[in-house]
Design brief:
The chain has 14 helices and four strands. It has two domains: about 1-100, no CATH class; about 105-330, MetI-like fold, CATH 1.10.3720. It is globular, with a radius of gyration of 24 Å. The model has no long low-confidence stretch (mean pLDDT about 85). Helix content is about 75%, strand content about 5%. Helix 5 (about 100-135) runs antiparallel to helix 6 (about 140-155), helix 5 (about 100-135) packs antiparallel against helix 10 and helix 7 packs across helix 8. A two-stranded antiparallel sheet has the order 1-2. A two-stranded antiparallel sheet has the order 3-4.
């Protein structure tokens, strides 16, 4: 198991380097003037020349990329002398529009994105997997048709439309929930949960339908295998047959999808945060795009990519728990 984990971590490190190289090329080598993107839309010629010098754009691309990677692992200093700007580890860039390191901007917004992503993930995983299992066990029945119809409806509705409908129904018409706002969990857990309910439901309606359909399909395949029929022939309780012999192999693709979805959401649920006005990583990315703040866009891109890659490592560990054959590789 340990050698297997070490191999996965080595591959992960290589993937992150490739992602860093790709983002560096897109944001620094392909534009005609990267300093313009870092400076923003309204930028004086003097400020533009200053940023160009600070970024070291007069140096070779190899030297720029070396400094870029060095900043990711140990921090870096932009410019020299009185104009030097410190960017501590991990340096994902420096926003010249806000005069702050991108990492600081991200960590300030990250608690909101974690609150949204983790709460929604728990909800959609519980609802989606349960609905998929019930649909498979009641194939062709009323519950199967009802669950799959609801799943299709949840998948079809755009996130922004679901968010607006929930605000209208739960806040304006019924008044059972407040408008979403930032409430620290440590100060008011109940208020935190109430403010996050609508974002959770918005994302869960989208993802739960996908998980329900995948779980149903995999469960139907598992229930048709010989080892499930053998377990039933031995007289094992139906709950044991479903839980130990049918559900575990059916969860393999669910675990894969869950790791990718959760990693992407931790990198920022852009539409959901924008509609509800929640200052998360996704809202930060939207504001950076609107203001043409290139370093922030680059930092969010790397941040989200790192979450997805690391989530896939956790998925591989989940495989080892669900499937003994994977553990044997270690």
């Amino acid at each position: 198991m340990i050698p297997y984990l070490l191999r996965r971590l080595a591959v992960t490190a290589a993937v992150l380097v490739v992602i860093a190289a790709a983002t560096f090329a897109i944001f620094y080598l392909m534009p005609a003037d990267p300093a313009q993107g870092a400076c923003g839309k309204a930028c004086s010629p003097a400020r533009l020349a200053e940023i160009r010098t600070t970024l070291g754009l007069d140096r070779s691309p190899v030297d720029q990329f070396t400094d870029y990677l060095g900043g990711l692992v140990s921090g870096r200093t932009y410019g020299t002398g009185a104009q030097a700007v410190q960017c501590p580890f991990p340096c994902l860039g420096f926003s010249f529009q806000t005069n702050q390191p991108v990492w600081r901007l991200l960590t300030d917004r990250l608690p909101v994105s974690i609150s949204i992503a983790v709460g929604a993930a728990v909800l959609w995983l519980a609802v989606g997997v349960t609905a998929g299992v019930v649909s498979a066990l009641r194939r062709g029945g009323f519950w199967d048709r009802a669950a799959m119809t609801a799943a299709l409806g949840g998948i079809s509705l755009p996130v922004y439309l679901t968010a607006l409908l929930l605000q209208y129904l739960l806040v304006v018409r019924l008044g059972v929930l407040p408008y979403p706002r930032v409430v620290p969990f440590t100060e008011d857990p109940a208020g935190w949960a109430r403010s996050m309910v609508m974002p959770w439901i918005t994302l869960a309606m989208l993802y739960a339908g996908v998980y329900a359909r995948i779980t149903r399909s995999e469960m139907l395949e598992s229930l048709g295998h010989d080892y499930v029929r053998t377990a039933r022939a031995k007289g094992l309780p139906e709950v044991t047959v479903v839980r130990r012999h049918a559900l575990r192999p059916a969860l393999m693709p669910v675990v894969t999808l869950f790791g990718m979805d959760l990693g992407a959401l931790l990198g920022g649920a852009l539409i959901t945060e924008s509609v509800y006005g929640l200052p998360g990583v996704g809202k930060l990315a939207a504001d950076a795009i609107a203001g043409a703040d290139q370093p922030v866009i680059l930092g969010v891109t790397l941040f989200a990519a790192a979450f997805v890659v690391l989530a896939n490592v956790l998925v591989d560990l989940g495989y080892a728990v669900l499937d003994p054959r994977v553990r044997a590789l270690g």
